Structure prediction request, 396 residues.
Amino acid sequence: MAVRKVLKHSAWIAYKDLLEFSRSRMRLVMLILMPLFMMVMIGYMFPSGNTLKHTPVAIANLDEGYNNTSYGETFMAQLEMVNDKTDMMDLHKVDDYEAIKTRIQDGEVNGGIIIPANFSKALATGERGEITIITDQSNPQLSMTLQGILTATIDQMGTQKAMGTLNITYNVSMNSTMATIKPYKVQTRGIVPGNPNYFEFIAPGMMAMVVMMSLMTGLPHAISYEKDIGTMDGLLVAPISRLSIILGKVMAQTTLGMVQGLLILVLAMALFGVVVYGSILLVILLLLLIVFSFVGLGILITSFTDNEQTASMIMMTLMFPMMFMSGVFFPLQQMPWFMQYIARCLPLTYATSAMRKVVVLGADMPSIMTEVTILLVFGVVMLAIAVPMFKKAMSR
Prediction:
């Protein structure tokens, strides 16, 4: 009977908080716009495509030719033919390296290609023709992508040329020629269908992060703000238990956090083609577990702070390290070793890892038991510390 009474009172407090939230049109709009803005901004920052499109690249053909033959012109014709099919570059012909350098500095192109003066002579005398790729070092990520794509394209063009030469010289089949030039064949295969892109790496962590942010920014308003304006005093003198107040606040913030988390999932699938290879039900359960893990931390902070502003500052101080050190945007393996140890102490790291395993790799519950256990233990410990402190703070 007592449990039923506590749950009833908690439901009424949650209803009161949600009703108050719904009366503010701006807050309702931001509930939708915040995850939409984050997904669109980050989604187009890390597009779902795996190739460049219409990237401006300067090309300088310095080849002087050899015996009335210009392999430099042949190379440029091949490159333009490949580019016509892929639209990956907008090629700009320039005179020399200095022209490429000036255009990169002026922001007109993102990179350049130089065909050297001895290109034809080297190829005609059995040597390798050296092609130089110039990159924009002010944009390392784009430079790395451009360098990789250009290198692969030029390598493939070189292979096709060598195959044609051997075929003409020795009159052998194209398959035999390919086996001679490239005796090893590499195949890449993932553990789930398709070819996940970088945004699909980010999307699961985004869901976990948004739920965390919703809780850790919503609880200061739900508790500290009511202490500031005096409405908490009315709840404390009402014939309801302190536990009902805590549960009611948690239920309201859980509802808002789940709405935003599920909205992130829907937007990721609808706008950017993210595929959930695991169970949707397991994704929802993980979102609830993330709420449970962080709600104790939120209650703990609001229990020993005097006002909403202080609580919000502490929340933001804790949130920002977790956002950037928990593997949401960057793999943990890319961090320095000491930061990896710090990351393993953050609950959002395990929330992100579990969500990513289910969404991207199609993992089931046994595969994420380590992460689930850590999140459960963290949530229980935080609640065990936070609830008595909240009751004590409300009794002052």
